[in-house]
Amino acid sequence: MNPYEDIIDLPRPEPKGHRRMSMAKRAAQFAPFAALSGMAEAIEAGRIETEKKLEK
User: Fold this and answer.
1) What's the whole-model pTM score?
2) 56 to each of 30, 44, 45, 46, 47, how far by Cα in Å?
3) DSSP 26
4) How far apart are CA 8 and CA 3, in angstroms?
5) Are 17 and 11 a contacting pair, CB within 8 Å?
6) pLDDT tens digit sequence for 36-50
7) With contact defined as beta carbons under 8 Å apart, do 14 and 20 qualify?
């Protein structure tokens, strides 16, 4: 006998004090964030400057 056989088909418990969070809001909590905001722009600016120097 499976040790969880008696509970495997039970419905998921619902919270009594508040509504469940929507899937979109829940997903937003785990979405990646830009820890280095502006880094991509700085790299691109550096690449452009380097290319200009190489063209001279």
Assistant:
1) 0.39
2) 47, 19, 17, 16, 15
3) H
4) 10
5) no
6) 788 889 999 999 999
7) yes
